[in-house]
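// run 5 | inverse folding | seed 20
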């Protein structure tokens, strides 16, 4: 057998207080899709950043076609045909789509960037990922799912031999993800190798030729194509069986705590939204990307104040004009896009966790150091946040652990009504179950929970009741007894087409 296209031998990498990689080895064959999976903080992104020249290893070797190579920079990696699509999007918001795709490699014409040409060229790559936006659109104005597709188009444009995708589908809708899978198949047929990182094991099963599992910075095992199964992967990842994945037990709802009547959002001013939420109830909000679910939560939480309608919390009319007002009446929102709205990356875990609740209890400007320490210890424990200590700067945590900090921050508020927007996006199977448990526990304590999710299984597994949205409207409400895949899809597409 010939040498692998890319091989990593006994690679190690430490950060202050953390040994992220402890002698990891992997091998990648030509035209192979290799999935790399593992719990949050297992070292996946660190390994990929080393391969892409973003970080340097402490020790170990990287070989291409059997010969040892040194990858000193991103430029070096690209020259060797290795491109990485980052877990945390890496685009310039203030540039248009085409400029982002060709950033640093712009074709010049008479000393100036040939804008016409890059827009024309960009179109090809956008078509390849099935993204129908004007290349002249500013990236910052696009929804996160579209930004992700731009990032993928950008990676395609460098003609990589090894394309690394670090959780590429975490912000894509089912339809967008399908397009990506097709792109991956086409790449493989044309001889490109793909390293694919995902917490969605269903995808891994569908796509991977082979799976390498990392646990705590070490190799935990490999699975060949015919050995790949959900349970097999989970066992290697967490070292134990996870039974009863959704801990949900139907609740007997209490009194109505939130009553929304005819609320109109700036995003979809033509549609009025109405529903109620009871104490101790978990209500899922399903719909396709673009259905207006995030916009609804943002309006209820005062981020983009309502254009009309009324909202009652525990019988009292409120009209939050800002998140601070919403927090004041007992609402909390865990946002979808943690990097922009969820955490302050430059601050510590402890400060982030206590941030929102401090604003609420701060008396005469004093901070309560002991309370802050207790709160962060509690959240690190109950959410199993992987961090050396609570003074760690959040940007040094792995992606999934950052997400847990966002959750911790809002849970520390002890809200009456909790809005969750894609609460388990980018979170590993073990921690997902922890979050479901936490939702159960909060509901049992009487918190009313409204959660938006694009994962059908999660909607079916965790909801007492589900609202389904389509193009800014609530097209239906399903009681637990009537909850099914088909029923949700029918309402989510408003009867236009039922998914096969
Ligand atoms: N720049 C850094 N400084 C300090 N610690 C870091 C840094 N980058 C990563 N780490 C730590 O290294 C470990 C591995 O992180 P990594 O991002 O590789 O995990 P991951 O497997 O990608 O996890 P996730 O599934 O959450 O994305 C974690 O404990 C993380 O906190
Ligand atoms: Mg990662």
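// decoded
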């Amino acid at each position: 057998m010939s040498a692998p296209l890319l091989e990593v031998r006994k690679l190690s990498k430490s950060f202050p207080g953390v040994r992220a990689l402890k002698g990891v080895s992997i091998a990648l064959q030509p035209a192979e899709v290799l999935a790399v999976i593992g719990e949050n903080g297992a070292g996946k992104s660190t390994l990929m950043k080393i391969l892409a020249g973003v970080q340097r290893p402490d020790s170990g070797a990287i070989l291409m076609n059997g010969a040892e190579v040194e990858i000193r920079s991103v430029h070096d990696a690209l020259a060797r045909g290795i491109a990485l699509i980052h877990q945390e999007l890496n685009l310039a918001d203030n540039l248009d789509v085409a400029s982002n795709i060709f950033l640093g490699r712009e074709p010049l014409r008479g000393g100036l960037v040939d804008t016409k040409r890059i827009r024309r060229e960009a179109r090809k790559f956008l078509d390849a990922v099935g993204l129908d936006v004007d290349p002249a659109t500013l990236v910052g104005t696009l929804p996160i799912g579209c930004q992700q597709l731009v990032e993928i188009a950008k990676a395609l444009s460098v003609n990589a031999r090894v394309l690394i995708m670090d959780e590429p589908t975490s912000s894509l809708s089912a339809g967008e993800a399908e397009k990506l899978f097709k792109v991956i198949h086409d790449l493989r047929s044309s001889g490109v190798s793909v390293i694919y990182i995902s917490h969605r094991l269903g995808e891994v099963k569908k796509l991977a030729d082979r799976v390498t599992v990392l646990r705590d910075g070490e190799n935990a095992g490999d699975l060949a194509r015919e050995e790949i199964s959900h349970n097999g992967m989970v066992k290697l990842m967490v070292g134990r069986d996870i039974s009863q994945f959704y801990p949900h037990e139907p609740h007997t709802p209490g009194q109505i705590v939130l009553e929304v009547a005819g609320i109109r959002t700036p995003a979809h001013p033509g549609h009025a939204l109405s529903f109620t939420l009871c104490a101790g109830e978990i209500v899922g909000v399903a719909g396709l990307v673009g259905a207006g679910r995030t916009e609804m939560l943002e309006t209820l939480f005062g981020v983009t104040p309502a254009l009309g309608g009324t909202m009652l919390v525990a019988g009292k009319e409120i009209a939050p004009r800002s998140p601070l007002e919403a927090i004041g009446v007992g609402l909390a929102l865990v946002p979808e896009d943690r990097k922009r709205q969820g955490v302050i990356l430059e601050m510590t875990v402890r400060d982030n966790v206590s941030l929102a609740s401090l604003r609420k209890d701060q008396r005469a400007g004093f901070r309560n150091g002991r309370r802050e320490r207790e709160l962060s210890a509690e959240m690190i424990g109950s959410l199993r946040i992987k961090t050396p200590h609570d003074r760690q700067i959040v940007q040094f945590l792995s992606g999934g652990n950052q997400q847990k900090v966002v959750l911790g921050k809002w849970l520390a508020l002890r809200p009456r009504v909790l809005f969750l927007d894609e609460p388990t996006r980018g979170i590993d199977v073990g921690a997902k179950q922890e979050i479901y448990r936490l939702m159960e526990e909060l509901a049992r304590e009487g918190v009313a929970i409204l959660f938006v999710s694009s994962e059908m299984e999660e909607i079916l597994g965790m909801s007492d009741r589900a609202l389904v949205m389509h193009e800014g409207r609530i097209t239906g409400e399903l009681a637990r007894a009537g909850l099914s895949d088909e029923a949700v899809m029918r309402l989510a597409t408003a009867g236009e087409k039922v998914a096969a």
